[in-house]
Amino acid sequence: MQHRSHQRTEIIGIIALLLADIIWGNAFVAQVSGMSSLSPLAFNAVRFLIGALSLVFLLFLPSSRRSRPQSKDAWRKIFHASFIAGALLFSAMTCEQIGINCLRNAGESAFLNSLSILFLPLIALFYGEKIGSKFLWAVLLNAVGVYLLAFDGGTGVRPTWKDLLFIGSSLFYGIQTFYIERAVQEVNVIHLAFGEVTVAAILSWISVFLFHLQPSMHAVSLALIPLLYTGVLSSCGAYSLQLIGQKSVPAEPASVIMSLNTLFSVIGGDLILHETMNWYGYCGCILMLVGTIIADTMESDESTPLTPSSQGSKALV
Predict the structure, then answer these.
(1) Domain tally, the chain
(2) Could you tell me the CA-to-CA distances from 140 to 128, 144, 146 in Å, in that order?
C-alpha cells in the first residue's frame, strides 16, 4: 500500500514538472507575441513588475514566513544577494528579449538560450571545481547544434550577431545560476526570488525611461495576455509546480524532465505561431537537446552538480 502511494506521488510529481516545462517552454512563444506592440525593454519592465507582484503570495507560505530575517545582518544578506542576482537577471533577460525580437522564432530562441546549462560548469571551473568527460561531449553536441541552427542550407552560416545576443544571455544566466546556488545556502530561496525579480523590474524601468521607451496603456493592453502569461504563470505558477515535483521525483530524472522545456518551445512555436525551421535547424535542436540532457545529468562525483534548482532560478521569471 505504501509502495502504491509512493508511486502515485511520484507520478503526480512528474506531471507537475511536465506542466512546468510546458509553461516555461511556451513563455518564449508569449515573448514573441508580446513584442508586437512593446519594445523588448518595455516588455521586460512590465513583465518583471507583474512577476514581482505575483511572487508576493509566495512570501506568505509557511516555509517563507518561518525563515523571515530576524536581524539587520540577515536583511543585509538578502538585499545584497537580491541586487547581484537581479542585476544578472536583468542583463540576461535584456539580451534574451532583444535577441527574440530580432530572431522572431520561439523554438530557435529557446534552444539558443539553453546554452546556459553549459556555462555553469565552465564558470565553476574558474573556482577550482572539476568537470567530467560528459561535459565535453555536451559542449561538442551543442556547438554543432548552434552551427546547424545558424546554417541557411545554401550559402553557409547566416550573420551571427543575433545568436551572440543569446550566447551573452546564456552566459549571464550561467553566472546568475552559479551565484544563486551559493546564495541560497544563506538566504531563503523565495525571499531571493522576490528580491531579484524586484531589482530586475527596477533596472528595467530605469532603462525604459532612460531610452524614452515608456509603454502606453494601449500598447500594454494589446500585449496583456503574453505579459500575464510570462509574469504570473512563468514566475509563480511554474515555480510552484516545480516545488511540488521536486518533493517526489529524484533529482536526476527531474533534471532530465526539466530539460525538455526547449522542446515544448518548438512545439508551441509551431502550433501557435506557425513557425518553421529547415531540416538543419531541427537537427540542431535535437543535438542541443541531447547535449543539454547530458550536461544536466552529469554525476556530481565527476563534475559540477547541476540540480533542478539551478534550472529553476532561471525559470522564476
Answers:
(1) 1
(2) 22, 6, 10
Q: Per 3-state DSSP, what percentage of the chain is helix, strand, and coil (rounded to 5)?
A: 80, 0, 20
C-alpha 101/C-alpha 40 separation (Å) is 7
118: which residues sit within 8 A by CB, 6+ positions away?
135, 138, 139, 142, 170, 174, 291, 295
Cα separation, 308 vs 15, in Å, equals 15
Residue among 106, 120, 112, 94 nearest 163 (CA): 112
Indicate the SS3 state at residue 5: helix
pLDDT tens per residue, range 5-25: 667 777 888 888 889 889 988
Residue 130 to residue 149: CA distance in whole angstroms = 30
CA distances (Å), origin 235, targets 32, 62, 137: 17, 19, 32
pTM as predicted: 0.80
What is the residue range of 230's domain? 2-315
CA neighbor of 17 nearest in space, from 251, 195, 212, 196: 251
- Digit-coded pLDDT (tens) for 67-118: 676 678 878 888 999 999 999 999 999 999 998 888 777 777 777 777 766 6
pLDDT above 70 (res 181): yes
Rounded to 10 degrees, what is the CA torsion of 67, 81, 228, 212?
150
The cell numbers describing 103, all together, are: 530572431
Contacts of residue 256, defined as CB under 8 A and 6 or more positions apart, other chains included, come to 293, 296, 297
DSSP string covering 40-100? HHHHHHHHHHHHHHHHGGGGGSHHHHHT---SHHHHHHHHHHHHHHHHHHHHHHHHHHHHH
Residue with cell 533596472: 203
